[in-house]
Amino acid sequence: MFLGEYQHALDDKGRVVLPRKFRDDLEKGCVITKGQEHCIYVFTMDRWQEEMEKVSKLPRTNRRARDFSRSFFAGASDQKLDRQGRVAIPENLRRFASLEKDVTVVGVADYIEIWSTSAWDDAVAEADELYAGIEEVLSEGGDI
């Protein structure tokens, strides 16, 4: 399980160190791809298989589904962590997420997000405001 928020920096080769407590789950490798809100998603190989199956079931006759699938799969890159626990983020994904130097690595239960720290600060401020105002438990059928 991936939990927490961690501040890191990209090195000059576009690599970022992932938190030590995330590394055991990523020892078989990972897949990184474009995420929503212009972040990067990092999936374990098992979790990637699940995501791939879900996205592959989207109807090819639906233009939005095709566009989503293209972006999701074309942006994907399978990676292995190096001995220092770094993962390389390809240039196209760094551009997509506006990753330059300071990045924030976020554990989101069964996957990881990598954000430009400035974009993360904006996104988390908005999300925290929504979170603080939710009065119903979502599992009880409450609508956000």
Report what the structure shows:
The chain has five helices and eight strands, in the order E-E-H-E-E-H-H-E-E-H-E-E-H. By secondary structure, the chain is of the alpha+beta class. Strands 1-7-8-4-3-5 form a six-stranded antiparallel sheet. It has a two-stranded antiparallel sheet with strand order 2-6. Strand 3 (30-34) and strand 4 (40-44) form a beta hairpin. The radius of gyration is 16 Å and the shape is globular.
**In terms of structural class, how would the helical and strand content be classed?**
alpha+beta
Give the proportion of residues in helices: 25-40%
Cα separation of the termini = 25 Å
- CATH H-level superfamily: Transcriptional regulator MraZ domain
> Spatial order of the strands in the main sheet?
1-7-8-4-3-5
Give the topology, please.
Layout: E1 2-9, E2 15-17, H1 20-23, E3 30-34, E4 40-44, H2 45-56, H3 63-74, E5 77-79, E6 86-88, H4 91-96, E7 102-109, E8 112-116, H5 117-133
Antiparallel strand pairs: 1-7, 2-6, 3-4, 3-5, 4-8, 7-8
Looking at this protein, list some descriptive labels:
two-stranded antiparallel sheet, globular, 144 residues, alpha+beta, Chemotaxis protein chec, six-stranded antiparallel beta sheet, 35% helix, 8 strands
